[in-house]
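Narrative summary of target 7.
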Amino acid sequence: MRVVIAEDSVLLREGLVRLLADGGIDTVAAVGDGEALVEAVREHDPDLAVVDVRMPPSHTDEGLRAALAARALRPGLPVLVLSQYVEEHYATELIGRGAAAVGYLLKERVADITEFLEAVRRVAAGGTVLDPDVVTQLLSRRRHGQAVDSLTAREREVLGFMAQGRSNTAIAGRLGVTEGAVEKHISGIFGKLGLGPAPDDHRRVLAVLAYLGHT
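Modeled conformation, tokenized:
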């Protein structure tokens, strides 16, 4: 796998390069601003871009804008965005442009090397990864009548795992319940959110993310 990293902190940038290398992943470019990211994508045609949201010069949303520009340059480019804080607007905008092959993680998740590398590989393979804290905040603010409020605590938990791209088997293992119980919770979630049945796990995740990201 070939990755481009865009992160203005030299320390974190080099740390990401080292983490990816230890996981057998090749970083073909590591840059410090959005313009350099777009140029690196044009030059190297990577399998994934790992991008910080806030980058020079204003340290607001340059990283996200550059990620969207890179995806416009190379449609379908997998992008994993890293953020210091839960920034709903940016997460929603990224998801709203197409939920396939995108991820949004808080930087603190990088400390869990196994989870971070798993997220990198999942996004590069076309999956979706959304930080659990982002899911919680989106759910707490998103309103569609009283649909979201009607979800039980366990249904919210299951929905969070679905947004991370977890399979029914993985969710069951995390929660210590049967797959049948997970399927029942998922059925309840989609019923309450007014989403039609979709037998494919990936499509169910995309439906949830599209719902959360819709404004």
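Residues 170 and 190 are 19 Å apart (CA to CA).
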